[in-house]
Design a protein that fits this description.
There is one protein chain. The chain is of the alpha/beta class and about 475 residues long. The chain folds into three domains: about 35 residues, no CATH class; about 120 residues, Enolase-like, N-terminal domain (Enolase-like, domain 1, 2-Layer Sandwich), CATH 3.30.390; about 290 residues, TIM Barrel (Alpha-Beta Barrel), CATH 3.20.20. The protein is built from 16 helices and 16 strands. A hairpin with a 2-residue loop joins strand 8 and strand 9. The longest helix is centred in the middle third of the chain and has 23 residues. The protein starts with a helix and ends in an 8-residue tail after the last strand.
Length: about 475
């Protein structure tokens, strides 16, 4: 084939002429670069390759990372993972070979991406998120994504979302907002983990975490400063009582002193807040994770203390009384999973009291059917959204809409196994959730999310709206 025949076949002469004319009109000082960029933009982007690998998350446990290629570049994402999984959430695919990473390897999920998902997605437009996600769901053919693995599907979904934003030449949060039909960009109030317990730490504290919400800050930049300063003051408070060894941290960066009770932890946090001088700007939240210490219909607050376990059983009514007392004594505005995942009755009654935000985590597992039931029964009034529990960006958008249509709060949440991927920050802004829970204001995988929110706020400038007092209903 001659050069002229090749040019004619691909209609290159016309395209090149258009690019040159555009460069002339623009009076560009670098016509070669201008023409190159113009030609690149004139070709619709498609997915050309999907390559996955096994990496380690923040716990040193394998997870899935994906590089999704288009003719605009390479877009990388990795799937988060939790310390435990519920029976109602999408299924992570693990190898189960005890000789490799104690059975936690994800080579099967990686293989599914490289051999099956890649073939199904090549040639697709990365801006068509719904079609991409549906193609993977159809390929899997199971209700909980157990064939290909929710960790495989999610990593690809996130990478495709980044590629879609690049194709549209907009920030990731803007692309997500477009997908969700949002027009305002709210920077969420961060729920900083200060004290860790439960399965996230090696102390005897039964509940999972004590957090602070800087709702009184004017901007996210100020909220991050408040969180960091309070964290450092808490370190000093703990050191004064337990010494430096009391400042070891849990999986999400919260301090894990061997405190004797929830009240002692709250007193520590209250003292740290007082030392900052931000009393009027900070509220407190607690993540209980009651499913972990529910035995039958009773709650064992000493389950992590072998010598005491069984001596501090509380009924659902006792737990409600305890929460009432705590909310009166401390500025607690949000309680996550105050009861077992199947204890609908006590959750409904406690929510009806209107004392605070009642967040469903294990109760809901980000599952649309569970959310619909909870809305109908008024079993809680906020959703803790963990994207690996649903498995795709599209489904995360859908369950967020379910919650917001019910006038619920929505908390975008980290997992105990995180990576340096900052996707959650853009997701929180794009979906205007008003709340994000990304761990303590320390550790790189946690700060990746908070630092990205700083960048987004700076980029938005005057268009940026910090959720602040509207943290529940953006």
């Amino acid at each position: 084939m001659s050069v002229q025949e090749y040019l004619d076949k691909h209609m290159l002469s016309r395209k090149i002429e258009d690019a040159v004319n555009a460069a002339v009109r623009a009076k560009t000082p670098d016509p070669v670069l201008f023409i190159s960029n113009h030609m690149r933009k004139s070709v619709p982007s498609v997915i050309t390759k999907v390559k996955a690998r096994q990496i380690l998350d923040s716990r040193g446990i394998p997870t899935v990372e994906v590089d999704l290629h288009t003719n605009k570049g390479v877009f990388r994402a990795s799937a988060p993972s939790g310390v435990s999984s519920g029976m109602y959430e999408a299924i992570e695919l693990r190898d189960g070979d005890k000789g490799m990473y104690l059975g936690n390897g994800v080579s099967r999920a990686v293989k599914n991406i490289n051999e099956k998902i890649s073939e199904a997605l090549i040639g697709m437009d990365p801006t068509l998120q719904v079609q991409i996600d549906q193609a993977m769901i159809d390929l899997d053919k199971t209700e909980k994504k157990g064939e290909l693995g929710a960790n495989a599907i999610l990593a690809v979904s996130m990478a495709a979302c980044k590629a879609g934003a690049a194709e549209k030449e907009v920030p990731l949060y803007k692309h997500i907002a477009d997908l969700a039909g949002k027009t305002n960009y709210h920077i969420p109030v961060p729920a900083f983990t200060l004290i860790s317990g439960g399965k996230h730490a090696g102390n005897i504290l039964a509940i999972q975490e004590i957090m602070i919400l800087p709702v009184g800050a004017r901007k996210f930049e100020e909220a991050l400063q408040i969180g960091s300063e309070t964290y450092q003051h808490l370190k000093a408070v703990i050191t004064e009582k337990y010494g430096s060894h009391g400042c070891n941290v849990g999986e999400d960066g919260g301090f894990a002193p061997n405190i004797s009770s929830l009240k002692e932890g709250l007193d520590f946090v209250k003292e740290a807040i007082a030392r900052t001088g931000y009393n009027e700007k900070i509220k407190i939240a607690i993540g209980v994770g009651a499913t972990e210490f529910c035995i039958g219909t009773k709650y064992d607050l000493d389950y992590k203390s072998p010598n005491k376990s069984g001596q501090n059983f509380k009924s659902g009514e006792d737990m409600i009384d305890m929460y009432k007392e705590l909310c009166e004594a401390y500025p607690i505005v949000s309680i996550e999973d105050p009861f077992d995942k199947e204890d609908w009755e006590h959750s409904k009654y406690f929510s009806s009291l209107g004392i605070c935000q009642v967040v469903g985590d294990d109760l809901l597992t980000s599952n649309a059917k569970r959310i619909e039931r909870a809305v109908q029964e008024a079993a809680c009034n906020a959703l803790l959204l963990k994207i690996n529990q649903v498995g795709t960006v599209t489904e995360a958008i859908e369950v967020t809409k379910l919650a917001k249509d019910a006038n619920w709060g929505v908390v975008i949440s980290q997992r105990s196994g995180e990576s340096e991927d900052s996707f959650l920050a853009d997701l929180a802004v794009g979906l205007a959730t008003g709340q994000i829970k990304a761990g303590a204001p320390c550790r790189g995988e946690r700060l990746a999310k908070y630092n990205q929110l700083l960048r987004i706020e700076e980029e938005l400038g005057d268009k940026s709206i910090y959720a602040g007092d509207d943290w529940r209903h953006c």
